[in-house]
Amino acid sequence: MIPASGSYRLANARVHQSVTLGLAATFDSDGFALADITVANGKISSIAAQAASKVPAGVIDLAGRIVLPCFVDCHTHIDKGHIWPRKPNPDGSFMGALNATGADRVARWTAEDVARRMDFSLRSAYAHGTRALRTHIDSVAPQEEISWPVFETMREAWRGRIELQGACLLGIEGVRDKKWFDRLAKRVAAAKGVLGVVTYMVPDLEELLDHVFAQAIKHGLDLDFHADETDDIAAISLKKIAEAALWNGFEGNILVGHCCSLARQPDLEVLDTLDKVAKAGLAIVSLPMCNLYLQDRRADQTTPRWRGVTLLHEMKARGIPVAVASDNTRDPFHAYGDLDMLEVYRMATRILHFDHPVGDWPQAVTATPAQVMRLDGFGTLTAGGDADFVLFKGRSWTELLSRPESDRIVVRAGRAIDRQLPDYAELDGLMVE
Ligand SMILES: [Zn+2]
Predict the structure, then answer these.
(1) Residue 432 confidence (pLDDT)
(2) Which of 224, 244, 267, 328 is the most exposed, having the fewest neighbouring CB atoms within 10 Å of its CB?
(3) pTM exceeds 0.85 for this model
């Protein structure tokens, strides 16, 4: 359907207002308009409102199929991905996940093991239409010395297909060993990475956060936190991060993931936290599939009663940038997933009610994570921008979000890519006990 020459015109492409820039068209109540898109030299030369006249010969008629910009996945763990067959979560709980992953890391995460699983993950993400991806990298000693060089190699190998970013990952108590943590911050800076930690309510949380911020300022690093991934209403580390950002006068980007406990807290507490999050300029990413899987998991086999996700609607209403992302795929934190951002968006629509109205929620998997990751021109369709987009069969939200769209067409630099997914059997050699 898409000419290999890379020069063509698409008629009747259904584009969304929230992710299409500079299009003077009348958008319908779902935010869609029909557009005429011209592509040449890897770029979108023009996007214009569709004229009512007949489609001329030589122009590809999309007949109202939806076209979205390629996805940006801002929170993943591709160093953990696909270990499930050799290290399942024994009970589906958060502690089960933490313990199983820790044991597998110590026993199995050689450079080759990490590299092969990372590459498998990136091939899946690419085939599904993802253009940029940030992964957290388990950086508990001595793993940081193994995984960061693998990340750097992988980033170079994938340049031009997936823009790869890395953030270190360790529990906040790891910051107590300041000499070691400062060395890690330096290593992350050398890899042009992002400084990340997992926060929970340790007694010295404020002091440790101050040290994290000091190191980020010293090396000019952006920050990425996992915060309050729990139903415990006493977990308020999101607020502590916002306060630390304010009193440290931090000017870099800060992304905070999860924030599950916020959805359980009393309204006054929530309002105070959201005020501070907005004032401090934090961006929030929710991980709906992983939260649904892990949160409210009950040891007595009773039924979960909450969805696990944070208060994205309330955040967006205050102007806080909000995204959704994949998180874990086929590891003890989430037994499923394939880094398919359409699946994430479909699940987010159901779990978080990204509908009636859809509004600008498509930005949560495209333009907003691109801004957080400082990727200019990613996550939007615009004249003069890169011809990186996904063509779907669906012509409306109900059609798009009802089927897996396994036959979608992914266009990169104007050309349709080979969308063959890697075969699970490739990893069999890594799964033997
Ligand atoms: Zn995560």
Answers:
(1) 84
(2) 267
(3) yes
